[in-house]
Amino acid sequence: MLSPETAEQAVLTTFEEMAFLDVAAGPSGSPAPAEEGPWLFLSYTRPKAGSFALFLPKAIKFSVAESIYGDDWKSLSPGQLDDSLLELMNVLAGRLLTGRFGPSMEYTMGLPTVLYDPPGDLEGFERWNFPFHVDQNEFMLVWYEVSA
Amino acid sequence: MNRTILIVDDSETSRMIIRKCFSMTGDEDSTFLEAEDGIRALSALADARVDLVVTDLNMPRMDGVTLLRKLRKGERTKHLPVVVISSMGNDHLDQELRDLDVTAIIRKPLTPSKVREAMGPADSEPEGGF
């Protein structure tokens, strides 16, 4: 499985470098708002089959896009907003897979996609949740790995 | 520098970042062409004189490694400088890329300092492009 330390290092580094966001591991401690947001989803097929998903509330989505484009999110197209998140997901994927399987292991990953519904449980896969937060905004990394 | 750089990446965001980083590290006067995958890159190379290719690896239709192999087999492109920028990385892949004679391998997220460090003194004025 993906260790909490690997997840934390990959997420914190990626958000700091790409979006200048100060992320902390774990829940924020405040009641989570019932907010919809996109799920980013990416599958890998080697050396094991699996996937991972990242839920981002809209506040963090806009912060990421604004940091990457250096512009107000309202001036960005929906395509640019989604694309900036997919690029963040792409970088995160490289770090997570290298951290999970090691730098000597070959891995094959797919292309990131945006989902507007939670991926839920995937049949035949074990699931681990890793909560994070930026200030009061919580987000979630979900790691799926084929059952042994 | 004043050269023509072909950026190959399926992400519009990534192409924008690459363009900005190279513009900030000596290519402010260069011309940037863009392609969304390896197939479009080959098409662009057939139409334009290009001095440097900067490519991602993980792309639909034709990935970066396949593009590199095709470039190295082409008479006009076998010596074309290619920089790989990707979030993917492992020892085997890096060796395969070195065997394909890439100029540099840069891990995403791209920054101007990474470009400067990777290109270094070897990134001189082109002697003649494709």
Strand percentage of chain B lies at: 15-25%
Average pLDDT across residues of chain A? Answer: 91
Radius of gyration of chain B: 13 Å
Helix content of chain B: 25-40%
**Element order of chain A: H for helix, E for strand:** HEEEHHEEEE
The CATH architecture of chain A can be given as 3-Layer(aba) Sandwich
Tell me the major beta sheet of chain B: 5 strands, parallel
- At the fourth level of CATH, the homologous superfamily of chain B is Response regulator
Domain unit count of chain B: 1
CATH hierarchy, class of chain A: Alpha Beta
Oligomer: heterodimer
Total number of distinct structural domains of chain A? 1
Query: How do the strands line up in the largest sheet of chain B?
Result: 2-1-3-4-5
| Termini separation of chain A | 10 Å
CATH topology of chain B: Rossmann fold
Helix count of chain A, per DSSP? 3
Which stretches of chain A are low in confidence, meaning pLDDT under 50 for 5 or more residues running?
none
Explain this structure.
The complex is a heterodimer of chains A (148) and B (130). Chain A has 3 helices and 7 strands, in the order αβββααββββ. With 148 residues, chain A is of the alpha+beta class. Chain A has one domain (4-146): Chemotaxis protein chec, CATH 3.40.1550. In chain A, α1 (4-19) packs antiparallel against α3 (78-101) and α2 (58-69) crosses α3 (78-101). Chain A is globular and about 45 Å long. The model of chain A has no long low-confidence stretch (mean pLDDT 91). The model of chain B is unreliable at 124-130 (pLDDT under 50). Chain B has a 5-stranded parallel β-sheet with strand order 2-1-3-4-5, with helices on both faces. Chain B has one domain: 3-Layer(aba) Sandwich (Rossmann fold), CATH 3.40.50.2300. The longest helix of chain B is centred in the N-terminal third of the chain and has 12 residues, at 12-23. The radius of gyration of chain B is 13 Å and the shape is globular. Chain A binds chain B through residues 14, 17-18, 68-69, 79-80, 83-84, 86-87, 90-95, 97-98, 103-107, 109, 111, and chain B through 10-14, 16-17, 58-60, 86-93, 107-109, 111.
